[in-house]
Amino acid sequence: PAARLGPAAADRLREAPWRLLRVPGVRPQQADHFARAVLGQDAGPGDVRRGRALVLHLLTEAARGGHTVTPAAEVMSALERARVPDPRGAVEAALDEAEVLSLTEEPEFGSDIDEESFEEDAEPEEPEEMLGAARWALAEEAAAEAFQRLTLTAAPLLDDAAVKGLRDGLPEDRSLALTAALRTGVSILRGGERERPVLGQPVP
Predict the structure, then answer these.
(1) Which residue would you say has higher pLDDT here, 79 or 194?
(2) Does residue 170 lie within any of the structural domains?
(3) 0.70 cut: is pTM over it?
(4) Which of 4, 42, 58, 168 counts the highest number of beta carbons within 10 A?
(5) 51 within domain boundaries
(6) What is the DSSP string of 114-163?
(7) Is residue 88 within a helix (H) or strand (E), and if so which, with residue range?
């Protein structure tokens, strides 16, 4: 624990035993057991320290699974399953610690809106609140900003004639990928989309 919690780990754990969840591999049930050993009968499921630690734990586990932000509704559902009586309060407590960030994801509006079904006085779709562990969300934001700077300053690797010569005879998907890579000068390789597991449950 000292490696994760610092040299004052013992004092910090006495103050908030559920900080033990910051140690990789520790499950909420184990943290609850530890908290009961430290706090006795005061270690209840509604303890604000427990809820706050669970929020960060859930978001950290989601980030390890490839999801640096998670819908707030999913986080609160997972907190309910963990017997947290006030999930919204737990989220607010975690936000107050500044180790969790709240982000707003605006709804996307396509250019092919059906005019017949569009109503001028229709209520706009509410933006979805997303939560993320600050360390991962800030790192992702910094990476996105760096990528944008590279994209704005990058020059094509080859001229159009050379690109056309290279892509002749290639399947369409490879031709498009090659064209994008050579014309933009910046490429990002990523894995396929992973299904988001149920938050708070182990991934099989």
Answers:
(1) 79
(2) yes
(3) yes
(4) 58
(5) yes
(6) -TTT--TTPPPPPPEEEEEEHHHHHHHHHHHHHHHHHHHH---SS-HHHH
(7) helix 87-96
What is the rounded distance in angstroms from the CA atom of residue 22 to the CA atom of residue 4?
7
Please give the backbone phi and psi of residue 148, each rounded to the nearest 5 degrees, phi first.
Answer: -65, -40
Q: With beta carbons less than 8 A apart as the criterion, state whether 78 and 61 touch.
A: no
Task: Provide the pLDDT confidence category of residue 7 given band limits of 50, 70 and 90.
Answer: confident
* Contact predicate 46/53, CB 8 Å: no
- Provide the number of structural domains found in the chain: 2
Closest by alpha carbon to 76, among 43, 96, 40, 102?
102
Q: Say if residues 68 and 186 touch (Cβ distance below 8 Å).
A: no
Question: Quick one: 168 and 96 in the same domain?
Answer: no
Please give the helix or strand (H or E) that residue 71 lies within, else none. Answer: strand 70-71
Buried-state track 43-80, b at ≥16 Cβ within 10 A, e below 16: beeebbbbbbbbbbbbbbbbbeeebbbbbbebbbebbe
pLDDT, position 1? 56
For strands 100-105 and 128-133, give the pairing: antiparallel
Which residues span the domain enclosing 171?
Answer: 154-184
Question: What does the pLDDT look like over 69-81, one tens digit per residue?
Answer: 899 999 999 999 9
123 vs 88, more confident:
88
Residue 24 domain flag: yes
